[in-house]
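Support request, priority: normal
Reporter: lab tech (M.K.)
Component: structure prediction queue

Hi team, I submitted a job for FMN-binding glutamate synthase family protein from Gordonia westfalica yesterday, and the status page still shows it as pending. I've pasted the exact input below so you can check whether something in the sequence is tripping the parser. The sequence length should be 503 residues. Please let me know if I need to resubmit or if it's stuck on your end.
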Amino acid sequence: MKKIGIPALALAGLTTYDLLQKRHSILRTFPVVGHLRYAVEAAGPELRQYIVTDNNTERPFNRDQRRWIYASAKLENNYFGFGSDNNIDGVDGYPIFKARTFSDLPARPHSPQAFLPSAKVLGGPRARRAAFRPSSLVNISAMSYGSLSAPAVEALNTGAALAGSLHNTGEGGLSAHHRHGGDLVYQIGTGYFGCRTTDGAFSLPALLESIADAPVRAIEIKLSQGAKPGLGGVLPGAKVTEEIARIRGIEPGKDYVSPSRHSAFGDVDSLLDFVETIAEATGLPVGIKSAVGHLEFWEDLADAMIPGTRGVDFMTIDGGDGGTGAAPLAFTDHVSYPLHTAFPLVQRIFQKAGIAENITWIASGRAGLPDTALMAFAAGADMVNVAREAMLSIGCIQAQRCHTGHCPTGVATQNAWLMRGVDPTTKSARVANYMTALRRDLLKLSDALAVAHPALAGSDDIDILHADGSITSLTEAIGYQPGWGLPSRDDRTEITRIMYADA
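Reply from support: The job had stalled in the queue. We restarted it manually and it finished. Here are the results:
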């Protein structure tokens, strides 16, 4: 009996510890058996010598990318040893960042928080009353409360506050879980959740009421998102709790399908009127978010903004290869261009129109790693938004069960037992650590290129290697002219002064 009792007591003790600890979501939700995952993960490098899957095979984020995010979030060593395991010479389209030997810039005063503001003042060119310079060029992308759990949203918002970043509410409205210190970007989707009339139309008074006492710094109008451009989102009735229904202005327990397009406007002209109405009423910068398909919309928008009387303050270009939203496979695989194709397509239109400098450009869609972010900055981005990478930092294991409501780590679910695994206090620190690490690595890359700020990296700073040994500059690959994608001379001068103020 003693031989049986000792293991049983040990097992009970381990179970109790796992249930009470707050460091690991998997162990908190799946005590004891969750240790098997960490054991296999620890032995991964050795096991991978005998199995097919390598560090760069998995998608949407491969093992190396996830390891960098996890290590950064936990303040562990995020360096890699023994050289690259990428097939650099044998891959077509491999990017190379071209380091400079000498630099005229002074030694950078690296701060512990990796201070890295936006190169542009958001809303400055259109003189919005509440124009401001975002203190972080890396911010948290739109993920609604409802699609994410309450503790996940709280962790992201608190983490955003710790990192000095902006947190986009997503189209599900502004909840109490968004009010933990982080500055907000309020997103308006086609369902107008949180700012709608009883019959589902947009309501400006409801919007003003929603943001009246909240730290909302900007408004984003979502035209489409990368997961399902041209398709409305679905919120199953099982997820529409009393709280979520109250926040969104809908009935509890009922399925809700967002319209595929907006009812408040139907063309570029009425869109710009809508933007200016909101900007005038709130004083806030107002922008749009969209995936990219047919380019006529963007050409018409650029033409309408040339006179300067109306315009959007920022554009969030979203990659069309899926994201945090659940969608039919055909949409994630085939509808709209991926980010690094989409962004230059739109940027070229506004560069030719001569108004690109008047817009703050935001890239989203797997832009939350140092290399992918720098590619976006070189193409003209001023900031990047991160979604899935932020989810990984708070415990997501890429189980790809977001659409089922049974996320094992409690991040993308409303299941009370599963979301118990997310402790907002520890996870908020992790998302802040990740954001800081990303900014720090972007600073290191900027130093290698001898530029003061990632947004000052140009398309000439990157070459594309081809499997046949040839080289194409990024400038040529994306069809840019010299200087395209860079902030204005005044913005370049000002951000350089800010970055070296203490040098």
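DSSP finds 18 helices and 13 strands in the chain. The chain has two domains: 2-87, 138-454+491-499. Let us know if anything else looks off. Ticket resolved.
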